[in-house]
């Protein structure tokens, strides 16, 4: 005859004195959380405005004046037509006509995760772009 073995409910009872954290080393988690706190203040935001730096250079290739204009973007874009208007509007300065030499844009477009890598290897990143033609310019989301 076969004998039935029953396990009592006491075998599965919860011991309130036992703490599962005692068996699990959480020190590495705490270290990561502390490191993440350093970068927590960076928020990804949409670029709504940019500062346009206009530099005026004389015939000797010397910078003789500059001005800064803040312009509003439309969904992160400066449309080609608006860019042309800005160029024409700022072409004459101190009664002298200037010509466009280049267009540079700077877009620091890292997120919270990649910012850590940036500080470790700054030389691997380039945020300055040269545009060789008149076209719509786009600025990606950035961190503040």
Please tell me about this protein's structure.
- With 144 residues, this protein is an alpha+beta fold.
- It has a domain of 100 residues.
- It has 3 helices and 10 strands.
- The strands form 5 sheets. A two-stranded antiparallel ribbon has the order 1-10.
- A hairpin with a 2-residue loop joins β5 and β6.
Query: Mind describing the biggest β-sheet?
Result: 2 strands, antiparallel
* Radius of gyration (Å): 30 Å
Which structural class is indicated by helix and strand composition?
alpha+beta
Whole-Å distance between the termini?
77 Å
Global morphology: elongated
| Helical content band | 10-25%
Mean pLDDT, all residues:
82
| β-strand amount | 25-35%
The ordered string of helix (H) and strand (E) elements is HEEEEHEEEHEEE
Please give the number of β-strands: 10
Give, in spatial order, the strands making up the sheet with the most strands.
Answer: 1-10
Q: Name the poorly predicted regions.
A: none
Task: Furnish the topology, listing elements before pairings.
Blueprint: H1 27-39, E1 44-45, E2 49-57, E3 63-72, E4 77-78, H2 80-89, E5 92-93, E6 96-97, E7 103-106, H3 112-120, E8 128-131, E9 137-138, E10 142-143
């Amino acid at each position: 005859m076969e004998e039935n073995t029953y396990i009592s409910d006491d075998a599965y009872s919860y011991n309130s004195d036992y703490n599962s954290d005692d068996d699990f080393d959480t020190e590495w988690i705490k270290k990561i959380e502390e490191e993440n706190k350093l970068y927590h203040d960076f928020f990804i935001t949409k670029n709504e405005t940019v500062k346009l730096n206009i530099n005026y250079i004389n015939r000797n290739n010397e910078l003789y004046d500059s001005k800064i204009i803040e312009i509003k973007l439309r969904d992160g874009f400066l449309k080609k037509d608006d860019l042309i208007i800005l160029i024409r509007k700022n072409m004459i300065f101190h009664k002298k006509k200037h010509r466009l030499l280049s267009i540079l844009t700077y877009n620091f477009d890292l997120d919270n995760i990649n910012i850590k890598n940036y500080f470790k290897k700054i030389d691997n990143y380039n945020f300055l772009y040269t545009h060789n033609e008149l076209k719509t310019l786009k600025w990606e989301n950035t961190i503040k």
